[in-house]
Amino acid sequence: MKRTHIILLVFIALSIGLLVSFMGNLSTYETIASAKQKEGKAVTIIARIDNSMPMEYNPVQDPNYLSFYILDTLGSRAKVIYHYGKPYDMEKAERIVLKGKMHGDVFEISQKEGILIKCPSKYKDDPESAKKNLSKTQ
Q1: 3-state SS string over 33-64?
Q2: Cα–Cα distance, 19 to 135 (Å, whole number)
Q3: Which residues, 6+ apart, have CB-to-CB distance to 128 below 8 Å?
C-alpha cells in the first residue's frame, strides 16, 4: 500500500471513532415511567408543572431547595427537587426541560442548568403586535 492510502485509512478510522463518541452524548427525552426504570442514571424529561400540587420554596429558610410536581405527556406525576434557587417566572412556563436523576418517585436535579424554562411567546395571542414589532426591527 502506498503511504497516502495508509494515512487516508487512519484518518477515516479516527473520523469514525470521533463520530461514535459524539453519538454517545446524544440525549433523548424520557417519560417519568421510563426515567423510573433508569433509576440513578442521568435523564432528560420534558413536562409541565402540576399547579394542582404545592410548590415548596422558602428562600429565608433554605434558598437552595425548591420542590414541585410535574406531569409528563402521558399524565404521570413526579415530585422534583431542585438544589438551587427558584428560576424566574417558573409559574408561567408552558413546559420545562429537566435534567437529573430519578430516586424512587422523586426526580432530583443537582446541576444549576438542570432546569430549562419554555415560556410562552408574548406575541402568541396577538399577531398584530408581532407584525408591528417585526416591521420596527427591519
Answers
A1: HHHHHCCCCEEEEEEEECCCCCCEECCCCCCC
A2: 43
A3: none
Q: Is the pTM of this model over 0.90?
A: no
Strands 56-57 and 66-71: antiparallel
Write out the chain's pLDDT in tens, 138 residues.
688 888 999 999 999 988 877 765 566 788 889 889 988 888 999 999 998 888 999 888 988 899 999 998 888 999 999 988 888 888 888 889 999 999 988 999 988 888 888 776 654 555 665 566 555 555
Can you read off the three cell numbers belonging to residue 126?
A: 396577538
Q: Which three cell numbers stand for residue 60?
A: 429565608
